[in-house]
Design goal:
By secondary structure, the chain is mostly helical. The chain is 94% helix and 0% strand. The protein has one domain.
């Protein structure tokens, strides 16, 4: 997870730098898509963590 966040941060910094140097809006679009995908992946990961932590452990208690 940390590696993914480091890679995303590097991609965002690179995209921001490329936008500053070229003023091409496609780099901002790429950065925005990267942020959206990262947030989606973090939400899925968080949901799976909650599912494992609370739902499956609670299910085991009832059995």
């Amino acid at each position: 997870m940390r590696l993914i966040l480091v890679m995303v941060t590097l991609m965002l910094v690179t995209s921001g730098g490329m936008y500053i140097f070229t003023r091409n809006r496609r780099y901002l679009k790429f950065a925005w898509q990267t942020v959206r995908l990262t947030v989606l992946l973090l939400l899925v990961f968080g949901l799976l963590f909650v599912l494992e932590r609370y739902v499956l452990i609670a299910w085991r208690v009832f059995l």
